[in-house]
Amino acid sequence: MAKLTVKNTEITILRINNEDYICITDMIKAKDGEFFVSDWLRNRNTLEYIGIWEKVYNSNFNYGEFATIKSQAGLNNFKISAKELVEKTNVISIRAKAGRYGGTYAHKDIAFEFAMWISPEFKFYLIKDYQRLKEEEQNAIGWTAKRELAKINYHIHTDAIKHNLIPAELTPLQISYIYANEADVLNVALFGMTAKEWHSQNPDLKGNIRDYATINELICLSNMENINAVLINDGISQRDRLIKLNQIAIQQMHILQENSNRKYLNS
After folding, report:
1. pLDDT, position 219
2. CB 89, CB 65: distance < 8 Å
3. Which residues lie below 8 Å from residue 55, measured CB to CB, with a gap of 6+?
4. Which residues pair with 97 in a beta bridge?
5. pLDDT category, 225, cuts 50, 70, 90?
6. Could you tell me the residue ranges of all domains in the chain?
7. Strands 103-107 and 94-97
8. How far apart are CA 219 and CA 150, in angstroms?
9. How far apart are CA 6 and CA 127, in angstroms?
10. Average pLDDT of the segment spanning 203-208
11. 214 in Cβ contact with 146 (< 8 Å)
12. Is 149 in a helix, a strand, or coil?
């Protein structure tokens, strides 16, 4: 469930069968006067548009019954609710939902047309805010994917530490210190500070330094974890690895930043 705010009107979006449905019951609050969704549905142009959409996307659409309903559009005594339309014609572009987040929802293609019925300005800002929401969702997906990639590579990194840097006689506390110490090699190489130093500088933030990394930093960190695992296996000292990893971090961040400026990573 997501929310849009258009012209001071809060609008709910539900994900149904992997498609976005926008609450037109919420949207109608922005229309001047007292109106109902049924007022919109009695319009012939509305029904024609819904019918075209259903013919394209709905194999179970009852077009015969729909044609009968459409033939009555425009008559003074004609009125149909969203629930009736769904029950009689099997439309899937309209959903009447009860309970929490209840109301009438329309597939985004239909909801944008409903917004035009409210006003051209409302439709413009609805689409604009919807696009903003989708961009934010894509950015969040990208960040999460890079974060998960960094976690996977972290296991490769810790496995190299386990087999090359941890003698069997160490206590669990000593072992954890070695893992943390090696993690700080990467932190210092990329961020210029240890995890403890970051916490001292950011006492009000939860999580750790990597939770606040950019996508480019997470990509670089993922690469560095693999490289450090190779350097550990090759017996390179921590001091020499830190110098090498810092040089790699500078080079890779420079390349990634150039690509970001060209909008390759954010496209």
Report:
1. 83
2. yes
3. 61, 63
4. 103
5. confident
6. 2-118, 135-261
7. antiparallel
8. 7
9. 9
10. 88
11. no
12. helix
Close Cβ partners of 241 (under 8 Å, ≥ 6 residues apart): 185, 228, 231, 232
pTM of the full structure: 0.52
Contact 248, 224 (CB under 8 A): yes
Residue indicated by tokens 């009000």: 204
Give ∠ CA 124-127-130 in degrees, rounded to 5: 145
d(CA 194, CA 143): 22
List, in sequence order, every residue forming a beta bridge with 130; answer none if it has no partner: none
Residues 6+ apart with CB under 8 A from 154: 225
154 and 161 Cβ atoms separated by less than 8 Å: no
Q: Could you write out the DSSP letters of every residue in 7-63?
A: TTEEEEEEEETTEEEEEHHHHGGGSSS---HHHHHTSHHHHHHHHHHHHHH-TT--H
Output the average pLDDT for the chain: 82
Nearest-angstrom CA–CA distance, 67 and 48: 9
Task: List the one residue out of 32, 195, 27, 20 whose CA is nearest residue 107.
Answer: 20
